[in-house]
Amino acid sequence: MEFYEKLNELDKSKENIVLSVLTGENSGNKLLLSNKEKFYTNDENYNWDRIIPFIPENKKSQIIYVDNEKLYVEFVRQSYSVVVCGAGHISISIIKMCKLLDLPVTVIDDRISFTNDALRAGADKVICEQFEKALSGIKGDNGTFFIVVTRGHRYDQTCLQNIIEKENAYIGMIGSRVRVKKVIDYLIDEGVSKEKLDKVYTPIGLNIGAETPAEIAVAIMAEIIEVKNKGNGSSDFSLEILDVILNQKYAEIPKALVTIVSRKGSCPRDVGTKMLVLKDGNMIGTIGGGCVEANIRQTAFSCMDNNKIKLVKVDMTGKEAEDDGMVCGGVVELFVEPLI
């Protein structure tokens, strides 16, 4: 489990990469890179220096081939979170969508009745303070999505002024063009960089003709999903999966980690998606459900029993797959690693 302990120690603000050998006598060898520096390997004798130059520049997790070896290059995704300034009707819908998307969400408002509504809607953290004070306690990082949906442009102005210098994955601000222009012009006069302000998503949300608070929330979250999925990396070492791998409570239970390492056509989950299979029958995470998961669970059990790594291709395009209810019509490769 040392590899996963080291993985858990990585500085998430840096560019972190996992290299895994999928085939051949070296299958199972792994290397962790942090900002292009070697951080950990489970095999010091393996010649990683010949592999590193082949890491793709597009920073997307994918399979590569080097000297007849098949390897998986995984750009480790930072953890994501959402900070919502304002707890009105739009925010309530945003909170509910964040819960569906497994995005931790913090909500800020200075009105107790509104923050109570946010709590009831399922917000992970609610701060009932003046916006400036609350935001001073939020650091921000390259996985933080800031959404400004307050009740008036002077509050928008305060929020944006206190957010714009923070590290972020996204800043979006609601408002009409006139309201937004007032805020932007004021901040430019206050010395805020126009270059930074030009990166603010405003009007906020994808242009889908949204009118109701729920529709506006859909447009905002769709834009955030678009920004998130176009970003670097697609690996999904979820906190839940890492917790089960590293927690002594589960130490005696054999486990296998299943990762989607390639996909073609229509598939329910993207490259990098992971599922942890436990020998007691439990599964953490999902690679798409249905017959694929049922079949791969049996493969995972076999890998645990034999302590063998396996690369499995699942074809969901043929009639047999159609009869089994695999309606996606794509092909995925799954890397199954026993964690004994």
Provide a quick synopsis of the model.
Helix content is 33%, strand content 25%. The protein has eleven helices and 15 strands.
Strand count: 15
Average pLDDT, all residues: 90
According to CATH, the fold-level topology of the largest domain is: Rossmann fold
Biggest β-sheet: strands ordered side by side in the sheet: 3-2-1-5-4
**Total individual domains:** 3
Distance from first to last alpha carbon: 8 Å
CATH superfamily of the largest domain: NAD(P)-binding Rossmann-like Domain
CATH architecture of the largest domain: 3-Layer(aba) Sandwich
Q: How would you characterize the largest beta sheet? A: 5 strands, antiparallel
The CATH top-level class label of the largest domain: Alpha Beta
Oligomer: single chain
Radius of gyration: 23 Å
- Tell me the overall shape: elongated
Strand/helix succession: HEEEEEEHEHEHEHEHHHHEEEHEHE
Strand content: 15-25%
Model description:
The protein contains eleven helices and 15 strands. The chain has 340 residues and is α/β, with parallel strands linked by helices. The longest helix has 18 residues. It starts with a helix and ends with a strand.
What's the helix and strand layout?
Blueprint: H1 2-9, E1 16-21, E2 30-34, E3 37-41, E4 62-66, E5 69-75, E6 81-85, H2 89-100, E7 105-109, H3 112-121, E8 125-128, H4 131-136, E9 144-148, H5 153-163, E10 170-173, H6 177-189, H7 194-197, H8 213-230, H9 239-246, E11 255-264, E12 274-278, E13 283-285, H10 290-306, E14 310-315, H11 319-323, E15 331-339
Parallel strand pairs: 6-7, 6-9, 7-8, 9-10
Antiparallel strand pairs: 1-2, 1-5, 2-3, 4-5, 11-12, 11-15, 12-13, 14-15
